[in-house]
Amino acid sequence: MWQKIAAAGKKIVESGLVEANFGNISIRSRSGNSFLITKTGTALDEIDSCGVIEIPIFDGESDTFVDPFVAAAIEKAASSETPVHRRIYRETNANAILHAHCPYSVVMSILEHEAGNDAVIPIDSEGKLFLKEIPIISGGIGSDTLAANAAAVFKDESVKGAIILGHGTIAACDSLEEAYNVTAQLEHAAKIKYMYAKAKNLF
Predict the structure, then answer these.
(1) Is 86 helix (H, G, I), strand (E, B) or coil?
(2) DSSP secondary structure code for residue 46 in this structure
(3) From the CB of residue 1, how many other CB atoms can be counted at a distance below 10 Å?
């Protein structure tokens, strides 16, 4: 299953949505008891079998045996956003999660937050059709607060993508292919809205 993560990582970097070291990717295991996630510091376009790690969704459950004494070391090796991924898998039906530090999404989340808004409302036709509105999720990186807030957003099955305040996009979907498409839509909508606001100030 790591090959699917590797393909998604290569695609998102080659598309120009993010730089190689900015984001993390996970996929739910076939049994549903655990998920594979990129290790901390892994370049998204250079993922191999050693670049991902299996994490139980619920304590003590895994597709492979994990000695309790090394569980802490495994968690430390995984992405810092592992608690967010785990909480989403626990509380929703998502099978794949893609988090990316897309620059326009980061900027727009900050601007909208400073304006007192809790979502980015797309102005482009595709964004209006497919996204409608993009929730802004608050919370410190990898924190329990962020994990709880993210899971709460994605419990609404109509929501496939959101922006973590000042940090980047997050898509929780049925597949990594869908998560990539949602990520691209999120960043496109944010870019169009930013460019429109900037151009409007010039005319």
Answers:
(1) helix
(2) G
(3) 16
pLDDT in tens, 46-63: 999 999 999 999 865 554
Residue 166 Rama label (left phi>0; alpha psi -120 to 50; beta): left
3-state secondary structure of 49: helix
The strand pair at 34-38 and 52-56 is best described as antiparallel
Give dist(CA 47, CA 6) in Å, integer. Answer: 5
Model pLDDT for residues 166-183, shown as the tens digit of each residue: 999 999 999 999 999 999
CATH superfamily of 2-200: Class II aldolase/adducin N-terminal domain (3.40.225.10)
Q: Contact, 126 vs 155, CB < 8 A?
A: no
pTM of the model: 0.90
Q: Where are the beta strands (DSSP E) in 46-192?
A: 52-56, 96-100, 119-120, 134-137, 161-164, 168-173
